[in-house]
Amino acid sequence: MSTIEKVRWTSADLELLPDNGNRYEILGGELVMTRAPHWKHQDVANNACVELTNWSRQTLLGKAVQTPGIIFTDADNVIPDVVWVSKERLAEILDESGHLRGAPELIIEVMSPGEENEKRDRQFKLKLYSVEGVREYWIVDRIQQKVEVYRRENGVLKLAMTLFKEDYLTSPLLPDFSVSVAVLFV
Fold first, then answer.
1. Among 53, 50, 73, CA closest to 61
2. What pLDDT does residue 172 have?
3. Contacts of 102 (CB under 8 A, 6+ apart)
4. How confident is the model at residue 5, as a pLDDT?
5. Where does residue 97 fall: left (phi above 0), alpha (psi -120 to 50 degrees), or beta otherwise?
6. SS3 call for 176
7. Fewer CB within 10 A of the end CB, N or C, for the chain?
8. What element of type H or E holds 56?
9. Eight-class DSSP state of 94
10. Contact assessment for residue 20 and residue 34, using Cβ atoms and an 8 Å cutoff
11. pLDDT beyond 90 at 125
């Protein structure tokens, strides 16, 4: 009887992959490759980032960035659609190569269609972000035009609310931040 050993991907392996327009992430040692997202996906992510950037410029409390690399561990490297990180936290987790090496306060993923994508965002990434200490996680569904807001409760990210186009998105992390959910989808 032979044993088949499962390949575990690491940060070092990412350096060997081609720069061909694909997005490579490692989740639990598994390589995940996706193509560049749909235009509308990127537009929604951009809208969220613009709103957070505008608020951040007014408050000087932090920064919002699209598609940053986050290296949680050698076996967990992700590229979320948008992150917001406070100035204090950024000073702690930004490494010399320009990657985050720890959890920002807020991560936003815009869901791409398909069961595999949904499972990755709602299960794998939710669990990873929870374990790593992300304080809020927003899953934006551009097809159904809704936002699921997960907040840290007793050390775990839990669904706090689901917001629709007629609602306003606010956060205890972001004092006086408020944006119409509809604005994310224009």
1. 53
2. 97
3. 70, 72, 89, 92, 93, 132, 133
4. 63
5. alpha
6. strand
7. N
8. helix 39-59
9. B
10. no
11. yes
The pair of structure tokens assigned to 82 is: 């948008």
- For residue 145, the Cα-to-chain-centroid distance in whole angstroms is 18
pLDDT in tens, 25-39: 888 888 888 877 888
In sequence order, the β-bridge partners of residue 91 are none
The enclosing H or E element of 116 equals helix 115-119
**Nearest-CA neighbor of 49 among 61, 66, 36, 32?**
66
Average pLDDT of the residues of the chain:
93
The Cα 9–Cα 104 span in angstroms is 23
Q: What is the pTM of this model?
A: 0.91
Cβ atoms of residues 70 and 137 within 8 Å: no
Burial of 18 (0-12, 13-18, 19+ CB in 10 A): exposed
Number of H helices, E strands in the chain: 5, 12
Write out the two tokens for 155.
């050390």
